[in-house]
Amino acid sequence: MAGYQGEGAAVGGSVLLGCEAEDLARMRLSVSPLRNLVDALHDGPRPDGGVTRDRWWSSVRRRIPQRALPLVQLINAHPRYIPLPLVPLVPDSGDDLGAELDVLEAIGADQLSTEIDLYTTAAGLAVPPRGLLNLRDGGRAAARDLAAAMRALFNACMADDWNTLRGALRRDIAWRTEQASCLGLAAAAGALHAGISWKSAEGALAIPMNRLAADARVSLGGHGLVLMPSVFGLDQILPILPTGRQPTLIYPARRVTPLARGDGDGLAALIGRGRAKALRAVRTGCTTGELASRLGVSAPTASEHATSLRNAALIVSVRQGQRVRHTLTELGDNLIMANSTMSMGN
Asked: Which residues fall within 8 angstroms of residue 198, CB to CB, at 6 or more apart?
């Protein structure tokens, strides 16, 4: 089965993703550069009405390489569906663009043909776009060209902003991790979007699908589920469940609504200049040692700042082996946005 879309609270049946004990143990969160690139280039409905994406798009549209224009058109062949061969093939790449491109380049001709046929059927395209036909019939050479075009697009349109975007994605993951520590990861996954819910009695995530007349249960087969946030994600939940792929659930990352700006540094007035500087230093995520280096203070002083910010619910700290990594909470992010002149694309 291949799932490409979930349209909020649509009338009809739902796909029930059955989560057995092994699936729950293997459920995890992941960041993908290619997924975010494809979503950013896709002109579909978004939770904020498209304001964030439109702002980004207006600053990069003139940078698109001529050779990549057909790929952008292909991504937008349908307002909600995205051709599966264009989305990441390595959910556990560790946000490594090169690893994703290597696997994309090595995709087999049979897999290309199968996934393109699944897409055209699901999207109801009587006449597939020429680019898809060329990709389907071009074999490995076409896959190499696709990977090269993806790299060119990323370098031209997203590379300059990737650190900012990756920081937002990691903060979303930190927020979900914090939720999961209280609710359990499956229940936290059920809160990703208004169109999805966790059915504890059935042990399944329910995703409305308006093409289904009744509920259809799909077993994850012990493979687990990768939850993948997208900064420019569409206002829907996208389950990707075809044979041979890691089951993946794409969801729109949490939006940050800037508070009203005032004169001066209101953040420093609220929590103190030292704490304000520390909070801003945590913005892209860091360990205690990295925080100390960014602030030019000792490790104990950085740890003291982190403890105060954590007690104020402005950051969340997660142990990773011998180190503790700090990321912003929603409140911390909002406070920085209210007192910052930085904006996406600068």
From this structure: 186, 187, 189, 190, 191, 204, 205, 206
